[in-house]
Model the fold of this input.
Amino acid sequence: MKRLRRTLVLVGLMGAGKTSVGRKLAEALGADFRDSDDEIARAAGRSIPDIFADLGEAAFRDGERRVIARLLDEPPHVLATGGGAFVRAETRALILDRAVSVWLRADLDTLVERTSRRNDRPLLRDGNPREILTRLMAERDPAYSEAAFTVDSRAGGRQEDVAAEIIRKIDRAGELEDVA
Ligand code: S3P
Done:
């Protein structure tokens, strides 16, 4: 059995599969799974759309940074972050310093298909999701590419396979330790 030495942080756009792959990773590594959006919603006592509507995106981003900083103080676990977290320079620096980061990269069709299943993402509500995601890919991919590792995730692919590839990559880089 292999165990994480540091928290594994998944970054990437909405619909890349951070939450579902994150759960598989946590299961395979015997680690806890956390989702920064869930933690922010809990701390604020309201949903992500309500935080955006009532407090605005800037307040959400501050809360996100604080929540991620707190989670990185906890024992090693698997953490899925909201798509904008790693784009903020301060939050990105924190993650790069304290965790092992993995960019879950997906093509546009995969992102459009996966995000169409839910309607609780404020950034995709006003406008054409394909156009918005195209713009976000152009704006954000340079930041995501600073993650320590990059793994591709495709629609129709198995999340277990993506998780296994992440484990192989970080293990090869010495990020896992053996436990009896
Ligand atoms: C956001 C992504 C969402 C959530 C919020 C903003 C973004 O998380 O944090 O709606 O800026 O990309 P997911 O990536 O988990 O959908």
